Amino acid sequence: MQSTDKFIVTPRGGNNFVNEKEIGGKTMIVNTSIEEAINVNRFGVIVALPLNYNGNIQIGDEVVVQHNVFRDWFDSKGITRKSVCYFKENLYFLDEESIFLIFRDGKYISVDYYCFIEPIVEEQRWIGKVEVEHQGIVKFPNNYLESQGVFAGDRIAFKTDSEYEFEIDGQKLYRMRVPNVLVKISA
Fold first, then answer.
1. What are phi and psi of 72, to 5 degrees?
2. Distances (CA, A) of 56 to 100, 128, 132
3. 87 by DSSP, 3-state: which?
4. Beta-bridge mates of residue 104
5. SS3 85
6. What element of type H or E holds 20?
7. Sign of the torsion angle spanned by Cα atoms 70, 26, 116, 58
């Protein structure tokens, strides 16, 4: 089964929501509601590629996707509805623009003009730990940034309100588009 122009993906682990976390060696339920987008599963597995697709994404790749892909929601009458991406039996149609990161062979690969930035946290006297505003460390660059001399580990400055938060491997990261990366900061 292949779509003419969409990827077919299933949620990693088979669940639309990720509402359990390991805390102190015990599994805790952190949310029992579908309203919170932060608990929607953002990891999927590619089941089928679009017809005549020639890009970097492969069947079986784990991918990081937009938060509404697997999201169920309540309509104005309180009836649970499936995501607009829903196809059938835990399968979803997905545009390439909704795929941000590929996980293959133990390595993360940024897709197209997306990159992932690690916030910089510093200890502030009297306040404690705070994030440095509008700066971060490149965690997963893309081909374009690397062609411009910006690589993993580089400190960068980014546009205000461009932080789209994800948790990847237990770490808080911001997904950004290339135009949001303003400058590489030299040491």
1. -85, 155
2. 12, 42, 34
3. strand
4. 107
5. coil
6. strand 20-23
7. negative
Rounded distance, CA 9 to CA 88, Å?
Answer: 11
182 band by pLDDT with thresholds 50, 70 and 90? very high
Measure the CA–CA gap between 129 and 125, rounded to whole angstroms. 9
pLDDT above 90 (res 33): no
pLDDT for the residue 30 = 57
Please enumerate in sequence order all residues whose Cβ is within 8 A of that of 142, keeping only pairs 6 or more positions apart, or say none.
Answer: 110, 111, 112, 113, 114, 115, 178
| CA–CA distance, 72 with 36 (Å, rounded to integer) | 10
Tokens 């374009």 identify what position?
144
Q: Residue 117 pLDDT more than 80?
A: yes
Least Cα distance to 83 among 96, 63, 69, 95 occurs for 69
**Pairing status of strand 99-104 against strand 62-65:** antiparallel
Supply the Cα-derived Rg of the chain in whole angstroms. 18
The DSSP output letter for 40 is B
